Inverse folding.
């Protein structure tokens, strides 16, 4: 049946306008400040607005100051738009792989990149409703747009108004780190801040940086039709991630057709006509890659300037950001910091946890520690790479003997049936106990699977107890039960069981 | 390159081939590689049997260790073994060292690949730590075995000591906690990640025991701190994917019953660990997650080796990626259906029944891969072509053949292990690395 194509009432620009109405309304008028606030938050990204929402729910008087767009990098230039691209990219990859499932590759399959980006904008606009200025105001938060600046021990100035606070939170986020590669500025390049405004898929894309962002987008663009090369100066992708997980990812990207260049430095970029030529060095091997566009994802630089942090005794470093203690306090104990602006505890997925800690510690004299939390994170490549807790090398550095229970996805029935049997579940326990100290999952749905292990760690449930958790059969999550079963198999039976095995079963 | 003896041939009648006869033939077949791939002018041994192959210094290390085996087995006279050893050691003693890009070595270390005739660096290859260690292990094996007081054997011991003592292992740390993987005059130290368990145990033992340039004990600790102890397929083991990692250091060091702090913590030892790794290899082949042809109870052994030319092919309707030469490993791959029979055989000390069964299976199913009782470094049954039952590499690799000679000998008589137990440097290195117990 032919599907009718209905005329679209809204263009890209419309979606951008809808989003803008939500996250920085043009007609917004900053409110008259209250006499004093329990909490003033600088930064309207996830760490900032979640903390503000939680604080106001607990009855606090809260102001939130945002100099640009609510939602921060995550909503505007990071998680939401990138995941919106990854989904159609995976779909295209599956269509190309259809023959391996007994289906025919659709004839005339063409990537509609413009529609992919339009869909991304539509999703971004939709999600932006959750962080809209109107919603925050309706929740009881005083929202101020403008550069927030400390103006005394207990005051922040914004837009000519002075906000007095009992406690403050700096959650000003970070921006893409700019490359120090000769010629790259003149040749032009994209970061995640400009990437999602692209309307055409570059024929050849060079990605510099093999962290989560670089890997996710390299794979997405490759699957959407770009000829992609990725250059990483380290020997493996994803920084400190588990070596085997990084290797699986590297293999998967190579299988997709991405040119992999590990241990490689970009030493110069030049422009020749419409081409951008990157000069690369891997030890003593020198070569060039020509690209139509360059995407740089080499980390982030914390937003610490313009807030007059010096005036209130908040230590910071332009490269690393604001140091905090385990309670998320800065060097000024009345001022907290959370999110990407922090020099430590810089995890991409801790906003909710950080919000709870700040609210409890700042407003209710709590002593919640970030280090006690099990904070999972995930790189949304295919397969996904998810982790929670300690890595083996971290545990060993702390003197904790570690044993890892590994289940390969090729032993998991549902992964086999789905043709998603690449990857593994690794659960690290303290040797001689079933205390889970960390886990890594490399699997098609690792981001979903890691949650069960996070829950166990959070609730203090040991690996042995996880063996009793039944999963519907068949599901990929059974890999976790299989790891728990493997743990139980290594345990010595109780004396009673040993006696029964010896006496009763020795027929 | 010249051949100084007749090529290997089956030594006994096939129907009567006992396990011992089979092993003897396979060991002899492997040893014959060192006759055919040897340059009598300088003692260098080719990396592989293909024409114009350069020398691999690690293959020389295996060759030097194989000569005592050949003497004991009656395949070579002691005089010939002494002559070969002396020629080789004199070459390394007198070969040019320095920072220039076309010499033989630098700081007492050697380039991975050397020209078979000139003995100078080829392919802009790296000054290799692990390959130097395997060479030095061979040199020390020779100096321990040739213990007579005659002039030649005395000279072997004198040169061996000089060669060992002049290796500057400290420099090769490059100021870091662990040893670097290599160095090139064009770019300095290589910055490949070299974390986790590898075949480098012998490298650390030799480096830590050096009377002249010892690395600190903390270096070994720092290396072992990157280990991962895993339970996989029901087996507890120290993970490393390719089989050769679990074999090379064991060719010289008898790890049975001796434990470093890591293995004490795990109530195991490295020998037992290699045994478990071998079982895991078979388990993987039985699971055969990619559905490759041939894999099974008696067809296992993923390791570094040759493979079909890199490309994507369709097999049974499925896209199939081939890797060429690669360090294949279990369970994370890469795996393209290629088995390294030579690595399977080198597991003989760890799992003799399994290994012998695999050898009989290879001979029965893939006779072209066991020609002249010499095992190749890659067969791929999934890519059977032109009436053969498997793709087979057309070259033999010196490291493979050396590992076979030494491992079979250790299984049969323990000769190399016994020799190296007597080597004061090996003992000192193991003790400095905090190995205790057993024969130590």
């Amino acid at each position: 049946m032919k599907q009718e194509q209905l005329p679209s009432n809204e263009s890209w620009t419309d979606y951008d306008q809808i989003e803008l109405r939500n996250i920085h309304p043009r007609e917004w008028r900053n409110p008259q400040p209250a006499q004093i606030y329990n909490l003033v938050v600088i930064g309207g990204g996830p760490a900032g607005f979640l903390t503000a929402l939680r604080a106001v729910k607990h009855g606090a008087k809260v102001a939130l100051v945002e100099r640009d767009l609510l939602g921060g990098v995550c909503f505007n230039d990071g998680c939401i738009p990138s995941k919106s691209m990854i989904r159609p990219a995976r779909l295209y990859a599956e269509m190309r792989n259809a023959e391996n499932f007994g289906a025919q590759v659709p004839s005339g399959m063409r990537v509609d990149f413009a529609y992919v980006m339009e869909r991304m904008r539509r999703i971004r606009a939709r999600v932006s409703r959750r962080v809209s200025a109107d919603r925050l105001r309706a929740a009881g938060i005083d929202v101020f747009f403008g550069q927030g600046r400390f103006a005394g021990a207990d005051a922040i100035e914004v837009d000519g108004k002075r906000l007095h606070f009992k406690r403050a939170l700096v959650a000003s986020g970070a921006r893409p780190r700019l490359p120090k590669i000769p010629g790259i500025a003149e040749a032009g390049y994209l970061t995640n801040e400009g990437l999602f405004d692209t309307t055409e898929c570059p024929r050849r894309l060079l990605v510099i940086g093999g962290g989560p962002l670089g890997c996710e987008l390299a794979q997405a663009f490759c699957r959407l039709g770009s000829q992609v090369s990725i250059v990483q100066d380290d020997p493996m992708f994803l920084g400190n991630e588990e070596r085997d997980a990084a290797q699986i990812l590297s293999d998967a990207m190579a299988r997709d057709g991405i040119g992999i260049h590990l241990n490689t430095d970009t030493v110069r970029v030049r422009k020749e006509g419409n081409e951008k030529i990157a000069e690369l060095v891997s030890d003593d091997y020198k070569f060039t890659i020509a690209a139509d566009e360059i995407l740089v994802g080499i980390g982030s630089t914390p937003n610490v300037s313009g807030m007059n942090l010096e005036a209130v005794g908040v230590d910071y470093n332009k490269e690393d950001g604001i140091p905090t203690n385990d309670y998320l306090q800065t060097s000024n104990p009345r001022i907290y910091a959370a999110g990407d602006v922090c020099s430590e505890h810089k995890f991409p997925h801790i906003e909710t946890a950080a919000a709870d800690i700040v609210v409890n510690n700042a407003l209710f004299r709590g002593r919640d520690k970030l280090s006690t939390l099990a904070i999972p994170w995930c790189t949304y490549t295919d397969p996904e790479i998810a982790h929670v807790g300690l890595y083996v090398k971290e545990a060993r550095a702390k003197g904790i003997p570690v044993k890892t229970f590994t289940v390969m996805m090729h032993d998991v029935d549902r992964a086999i049936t789905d043709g998603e049997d690449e990857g593994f579940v690794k659960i690290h326990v303290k040797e001689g106990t079933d205390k889970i100290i960390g886990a890594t999952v490399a699997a098609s749905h690792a981001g979903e699977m890691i949650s069960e292990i996070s829950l166990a760690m959070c609730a203090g449930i040991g690996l042995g107890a996880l063996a009793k958790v039944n999963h519907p059969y068949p599901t990929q999550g059974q890999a976790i039960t299989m790891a728990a079963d493997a743990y139980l198999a290594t345990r010595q039976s109780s004396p009673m069981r040993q006696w029964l095995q010896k006496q009763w079963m020795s027929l | 390159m010249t051949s100084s003896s007749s090529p290997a041939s089956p030594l006994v009648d096939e129907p009567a081939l006992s396990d011992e006869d089979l092993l003897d033939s396979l060991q002899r077949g492997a040893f014959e590689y060192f006759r055919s791939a040897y340059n009598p002018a300088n003692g260098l041994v080719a990396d592989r049997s293909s024409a114009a192959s350069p020398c691999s210094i690690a293959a020389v290390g295996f060759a030097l260790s194989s000569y005592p085996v050949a003497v004991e087995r009656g395949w070579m006279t002691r005089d010939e073994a002494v002559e070969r050893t002396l020629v080789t050691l004199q070459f390394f003693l007198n070969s040019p060292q320095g920072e220039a890009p076309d010499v033989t070595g630098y700081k007492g270390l050697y380039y991975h690949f050397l020209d078979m005739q000139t003995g100078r660096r080829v392919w802009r290859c790296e000054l290799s730590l692990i390959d130097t260690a395997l060479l030095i292990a061979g040199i020390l094996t020779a100096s321990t075995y040739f213990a007579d007081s005659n002039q030649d054997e005395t000279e072997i011991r004198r040169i061996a000591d000089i060669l060992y003592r002049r290796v500057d292992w400290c420099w090769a740390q490059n100021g870091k906690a662990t040893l670097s993987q290599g160095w090139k005059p064009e770019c300095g130290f290589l910055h490949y990640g070299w974390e986790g368990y590898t075949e480098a145990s012998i490298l650390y033992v030799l480096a830590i025991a050096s009377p002249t340039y010892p690395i600190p004990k903390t270096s070994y600790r720092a290396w072992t701190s990157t280990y991962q102890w895993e339970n996989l397929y029901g087996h507890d083991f120290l993970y490393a994917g390719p089989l050769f990692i679990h074999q090379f250091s064991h060719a010289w060091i008898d790890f049975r019953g001796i434990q470093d702090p890591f293995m004490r913590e795990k109530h195991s030892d490295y020998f037992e660990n290699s045994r478990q790794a071998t079982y895991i290899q078979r388990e993987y082949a039985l699971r055969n997650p990619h559905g490759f042809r041939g894999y099974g109870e008696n067809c296992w052994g993923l390791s570094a080796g040759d493979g079909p030319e890199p490309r994507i092919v369709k097999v049974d309707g499925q896209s199939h990626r081939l890797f060429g030469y690669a360090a294949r490993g279990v369970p994370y791959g890469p795996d393209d259906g290629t088995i390294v029979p030579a690595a399977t055989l080198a597991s003989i000390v760890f799992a003799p029944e399994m290994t012998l069964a695999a050898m009989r299976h290879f001979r029965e199913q893939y006779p072209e891969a066991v020609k002249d009782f010499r095992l190749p470094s890659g067969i791929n049954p999934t890519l059977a072509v032109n009436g053969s039952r498997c793709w087979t590499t057309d070259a033999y690799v010196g490291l493979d053949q050396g590992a076979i000679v030494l491992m079979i000998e250790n299984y049969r008589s323990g000769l190399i292990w016994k020799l190296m137990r007597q080597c004061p440097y090996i003992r000192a290195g193991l003790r400095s690395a905090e190995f205790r117990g057993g024969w130590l």
Remarks:
- Residues 1-13 of chain B have pLDDT under 50 and may be disordered.
- The interface with chain A takes residues 124, 184, 186-187, 190-193, 195-196, 225-232, 234, 236, 265-266, 287, 289, 317-319, 321, 331-334 of chain B (CB under 8 Å).
- Chain B is about 40% helix and 10% strand.
